[in-house]
User: What shape does this take?
Amino acid sequence: MDNQDELRRQRQALKDEMEAADRGEFQAMSGASFVDPKPSEGAGARLRDRSPEGPDLSMVMDIPVRLTLEVGGSDMPIRDLLQLHQGAIVELDRQAGEPLDVLVNGTLIARGEVVVIEDKLGIRLTEVVSQAERLQSLR
Assistant: This one.
């Protein structure tokens, strides 16, 4: 019972805080603070104007991911695959000079071109994929 009463009290305090924010009043309930919204815009303005600090990403910064550069691909029947030998040439579905795909854990994040730096290959990013395109590729 005490736990339910505490939850009701917290819920009511949050509701009061949100109503006060809609009216443009400053109140410090439970130590919370918020940006003063325009009273005429209501809850939509409150959600837009709040500027919470970004998420703390420090815990995920050291997680390793696999970066892959995709030059191109080809579809072929197993019969042709088994006939490949050293020196065989496989035609890819990309034109010469077309940018490579940069994938992180299999998700396209950018496109770029190959560069040589002191006898090592690298990639110069020429286009970073937008968030909308990345989300579309996950579907």
